[in-house]
């Protein structure tokens, strides 16, 4: 008789190091995710962003619950995903490091559209979103967001994070 191995019988042996090394080769666009509202202004760098559905237009953002910005995003209830251009790696480092919120926002120009979340004026794309559902998985919350406005530049190359370094999309081709 054929033995069927269920998932439950497979020992989980994936170390954090193996996981991160594997994830480091998934090339990803770099985004600065921002919010503003009753809980104040905040922003962080995120590569864990992806398309969910075109009806309703939605995307997801994975946010570590231990990030200093976590409560601010949950209370404000909306956010903007600002996808960076290939020359904006300094902004990625600012929003990804342990810098104050004032420092993070000081070096770029911002505007607002529908939700009040800050739109980065020089971004490749701005996705203005309402946060719908939040799903907790391990250390992160998956923020499932309904897109209420899109502003997109006509041209420009996107900043890519690959093997723990920045490059641009043209270099990958
Ligand atoms: N999804 C995330 O939360 C995420 C993604 C990228 C980088 N970072 C953070 O940025 C810093 C530098 O990262 P790095 O790429 O130079 O090296 P790294 O070895 O920490 O990460 C390698 C890859 O693993 C994934 N990753 C890292 N931390 C994660 C986490 N806590 N949860 C889920 N996936 C994670 C990402 O895809 C990342 O590119 C670290 O502090 C890292 O935690 C976090
Ligand atoms: C390239 C890159 C990509 C990501 C990150 C960092 C960097 C450099 N960080 C980490 C996140 O930006 C960082 O934890 C916060 O900005 C730190 O905030 P506090 O210091 O807690 O305010 C991050 N965090 C997260 O919750 N989800 C994500 O997708 C990513 N992606």
Automatic annotation (TrEMBL):
<keyword id="KW-0520">NAD</keyword>
<comment type="function">
    <text>Catalyzes the reduction of FMN to FMNH2 which is used to reduce pyrimidine by RutA via the Rut pathway.</text>
</comment>
<keyword id="KW-0288">FMN</keyword>
<dbReference type="InterPro" id="IPR002563">
    <property type="entry name" value="Flavin_Rdtase-like_dom"/>
</dbReference>
<protein>
    <recommendedName>
        <fullName>FMN reductase (NADH) RutF</fullName>
        <ecNumber>1.5.1.42</ecNumber>
    </recommendedName>
</protein>
<dbReference type="Pfam" id="PF01613">
    <property type="entry name" value="Flavin_Reduct"/>
</dbReference>
<dbReference type="GO" id="GO:0052874">
    <property type="term" value="F:FMN reductase (NADH) activity"/>
</dbReference>
<keyword id="KW-0285">Flavoprotein</keyword>
<comment type="similarity">
    <text>Belongs to the non-flavoprotein flavin reductase family. RutF subfamily.</text>
</comment>
<dbReference type="InterPro" id="IPR019917">
    <property type="entry name" value="RutF"/>
</dbReference>
<keyword id="KW-0560">Oxidoreductase</keyword>
<dbReference type="InterPro" id="IPR050268">
    <property type="entry name" value="NADH-dep_flavin_reductase"/>
</dbReference>
<dbReference type="GO" id="GO:0042602">
    <property type="term" value="F:riboflavin reductase (NADPH) activity"/>
</dbReference>
<dbReference type="GO" id="GO:0010181">
    <property type="term" value="F:FMN binding"/>
</dbReference>
<dbReference type="InterPro" id="IPR012349">
    <property type="entry name" value="Split_barrel_FMN-bd"/>
</dbReference>
<dbReference type="GO" id="GO:0006212">
    <property type="term" value="P:uracil catabolic process"/>
</dbReference>
<dbReference type="GO" id="GO:0019740">
    <property type="term" value="P:nitrogen utilization"/>
</dbReference>
<feature type="domain" description="Flavin reductase like">
    <location>
        <begin position="23"/>
        <end position="168"/>
    </location>
</feature>
């Amino acid at each position: 008789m054929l033995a069927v191995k269920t998932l439950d019988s497979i020992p989980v042996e994936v170390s954090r190091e193996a996981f991160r090394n594997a994830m480091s080769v998934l090339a990803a666009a770099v985004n600065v995710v921002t919010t503003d509202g009753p809980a104040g202004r905040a922003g962080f760098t995120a590569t864990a962003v992806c398309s969910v559905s075109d009806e309703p237009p939605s995307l997801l953002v994975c946010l570590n619950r231990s990030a200093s910005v976590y409560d601010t995003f949950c209370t404000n209830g909306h956010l903007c995903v600002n996808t960076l251009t290939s020359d904006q790696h300094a902004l990625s480092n600012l929003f990804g490091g342990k810098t104050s919120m004032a420092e993070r926002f000081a070096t770029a120009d911002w505007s607002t559209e529908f939700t009040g979340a800050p739109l980065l004026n020089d971004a490749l794309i701005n996705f203005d979103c309402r946060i719908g559902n939040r799903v907790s998985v391990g250390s992160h919350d998956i923020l499932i967001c309904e897109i209420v406005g899109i502003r997109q530049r006509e041209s420009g190359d996107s900043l890519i994070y690959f093997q723990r370094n920045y490059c641009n999309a043209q270099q990958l081709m």
